[in-house]
Amino acid sequence: MRVLEINGAYGLDNLKVVERPDPTAGAGEVVVRMRAVTLNFRDLLTTAGTYGGGFKLPLVPFSCGSGVVEQVGPGVTTLKVGDRVSSLFFSDTWIGGPPTPQRLSGSMGGPRDGCGQELLKISEHGVIKAPDYMTDEQVASLPCAALTAWRALVVDGGVKAGDVVVLQGTGGVSIFALQFAKALGCEIIITSSSDEKLERAKALGAHHLVNYAKTPEWSAEVRRITKGRGADLIVEVGGAKTLMESLKSVRQNGHVAIIGVLSGVAEPIPIPMLIWTNARVQGLSVGSRDNFEDMLRAMELHKISPVIDKVFPWTEARAALETMQSGSHFGKIALKF
């Protein structure tokens, strides 16, 4: 089989298509013929060697994928040949319960080899049956971006109809959060530096549009929209350059879900502000298999279709990563096998 592999050293120049032996399913395992992969900002950092200090090389990157079960090993009871499946970000290590070091140890695309390979050998508990109504690329968008948004809003945030949510940007997590917030009956404020992207977000259900290039202190606009109260939930994906605005935007006893570091990894936080707001500021790393199953039931009920912006042949992974780096996408970028 062919795989995408980072070998020798980190960097886009060292992401190559190489050959490896075809895998065989062992006890409790399946082999999946991959159909699609989607990109996350994590994959860009992993390829550069800047995610968590880097992983052991050689490494097959990409955390999220979809495919069809081609082999079933002895003892497998939940899957059969021909089943269409989505990978799980934490594979078989986080089935349910709160996160622990052991449950977070099995992440795909580092330290474990990821989905950028034609044939993926994995535990039967490391994949889950896919919704019939979604395309391969849409299924491949679920493991990280969709589940992160679901956990931020539903599992940790506990939002309800009428709550105000603020979403930063129009990348994968934020667009899934928009779709989930709409299904939950929330009032949605979304930010972007592109008026064109904001109009696309409006078509998906956003109620209020804020161009942060024109309004850098967008917290004032959030306060205006909410008549001074502040937002119930902020989906914080920016990091260093956006966290202070999020803290200024959240209502007292509200929730800030820390998801990404698109603009930097460090930001001094004035402790008195946290004390005054009484807000919960919580980091989160995707979610469990149980969370995923709950999310799928909701998506199928509302027929929520993931937004795929661009699709590249899987062998053109470098071009896809460069597109992600440019920030020109809306929703998800996919690689097709």
List keywords for this structure.
2 domains; seven-stranded mixed sheet; alpha/beta; 337 residues; Rossmann fold; 10 helices; Quinone Oxidoreductase, Chain A, domain 1
Summarize the structure.
The chain is of the alpha/beta class. The protein has helices spanning 41-48, 136-140, 142-156, 172-184, 195-204, 219-225, 243-249, 271-277, 289-302, 317-326; strands at residues 2-6, 15-19, 29-38, 64-72, 84-87, 119-123, 127-129, 164-168, 187-192, 208-211, 231-236, 250-258, 280-283, 308-313, 332-336. It folds into two domains: 2-141 and 306-336, Medium-chain alcohol dehydrogenases, catalytic domain (Quinone Oxidoreductase, Chain A, domain 1, Alpha-Beta Complex), CATH 3.90.180.10; 146-283, NAD(P)-binding Rossmann-like Domain (Rossmann fold).
What does this structure look like?
- With 337 residues, the protein is α/β, with parallel strands linked by helices.
- It folds into two domains: 2-141 and 306-336, Quinone Oxidoreductase, Chain A, domain 1, CATH 3.90.180; 146-283, Rossmann fold, CATH 3.40.50.720.
- It is built from ten helices and 15 strands.
- The chain has helices at 41-48, 136-140, 142-156, 172-184, 195-204, 219-225, 243-249, 271-277, 289-302, 317-326, and strands at 2-6, 15-19, 29-38, 64-72, 84-87, 119-123, 127-129, 164-168, 187-192, 208-211, 231-236, 250-258, 280-283, 308-313, 332-336.
- Strands 3, 4, 5, 6, 7, 14 and 15 form a seven-stranded mixed β-sheet that branches.
- A hairpin with an 8-residue loop joins strand 1 (2-6) and strand 2 (15-19).
- It is globular and about 60 Å long.
